[in-house]
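Lab notebook, bench 4. The sequencing result for the construct came back, and we need a structural model before the next group meeting so we can plan mutations. Quick request posted to the team channel:

Model the 3D structure of this chain.
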Amino acid sequence: MVKAKGNIQLTVIRTQQGLSVSGTRITLYRIMACLKANLSPELIRDRFKLSIQQMNDVLKYIHQNRNRVSGIILAEKRDVSEKPGFSTLK
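Done. Here's the predicted structure in token form:
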């Protein structure tokens, strides 16, 4: 995981929702979806009210663990879609 500069608290953590920004309910999946939609890191940071350090740590984590993060996110999406009562809009 990525450690915040000068602090041992982890920036990226695993929660019930999946890989998330510590202290928030923001998942890496949401951030990656914004990046894929070509939103700038600055706009994403502002939209989710993240600090510059949090955004930098998340981007660094995604870059260093791209294949792993993508695999985890796909697995989490499958887990959610298999839960009773879950439906996708088509």
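The longest helix spans residues 66-81.
Will bring this to the meeting.
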